[in-house]
Amino acid sequence: MEPDTRSRILNSAENLFMEHGFEATTLRMITAAAHANLAAVNYHFGTKEALIEEVFRRRLTWLNEQRIAALDAFEAEAKGAPLKPRQIVEAFFGVAIRMAADKSGGQTFMRLLGRTYTEPTDFIRSFLAEEYAEVIARFKAAFFKALPDVPQEEFLWRFHFMMGALSYAISGADALRILGPVDDSDPEALYARLMSFLIGGLRAPLPALLPTIHSKPARKPRARRAA
Length: 227
Description:
single chain; mainly alpha; Arc Repressor Mutant, subunit A
């Protein structure tokens, strides 16, 4: 069945935003690709910002619902006990990795989302923070409970690195040409490799942090002069 005008605009915008970025993609580029006119964009979305929000919302809502559902299932099975870190990683990142393997739209969206992490604008950063608020709160609580020996600040850094690894992995093997040829045609192999890497990073030994460059060395006591 032929997509309606609204769906064609969303599909075209998703592809063009992923390929060119948000600033470089114009509404005229989107309408040309969607075989629509500017009046249709104004009618269905109103502004470019509203269009960007809907591009994210139509798939991000489903993605986050699946994440919460997976976490709920693991927590129900645990009956109040802390989850295993692997289960939490599976619930949050596993759903995203599998979505990235979906070539009917999920792959493009996840690559767009990954690009957003590395090229954020204030508008998109604020929008994603609101969309992620409930999910991030649930998963942080689960991780803190599962890893009580990891300081919360250290965990936030590790989660940040894990999000970066996910973003890089779903961007495609083209980014790895500098290292040599890599075959990313098998989504299950990518899933297994990335999950192993994420778990390893999450459970790595805590770093021995050095004093910050702003910290001042303690003053040595002055030697008293002889009377």
